[in-house]
Amino acid sequence: MRTIDFTPLYRSAVGFDRLASLLESAARTSQEGGWPPYNIETTGENAYRIEIAVAGFRPEELNLEVKENLLTVTGRRTANDDAPAKTYLHRGLAERDFERRFQLADFVIVEDARLDNGLLSINLRRELPEALKPRRIEIASASAPLIEGETKTAA
Fold this sequence. Notes:
Distance between the termini: 80 Å
Structural class: mainly beta
Number of helices: 2
Helix content: 10-25%
Strand content: 25-35%
C-alpha cells in the first residue's frame, strides 16, 4: 500500500488546501472496493454522464444526494420476507448495499437520473454563471458625440 504525504504542499502553497484535500480523498477512495462498476463519459462540451451497474436494485432502493459538490449514490436492499429461502449452488450476483461518491467540480449540476436495464445513468451539466462567462466590451471612440445632436467643441 502506497501512502502520499501532502504536508509539504500545505506548508508552501497558499489557497490550494481544497486541491490537496481532493487529492487525499481520491487516494483514500481508490483503495475501496470496485463495486459497483461505473463509467464516466463526456456527452458534450459541458455535459457528462455517470453510468453505474446496479442490477437487481429497484428505483426506490437507490438514493442520489448532492451536497457541497459531492454526489453520493447509495443502494440499500430491502428485505424480501415474502421470497422463499433459496439454496444456491453458485452465487455470483452481488446483492449487497453500496455507497459511491463522486466529487463534482464547481458549477456542475445533476440534471436527471434514470434506471434502465440495470444501469443507473446520471446526467450532469456544467453551468457557468453569467459573471464568469467571457463577454465582449465595446470600445468607445473619442470622436463620437456625447449627446445625440450636439457636437463637442474645442475649448
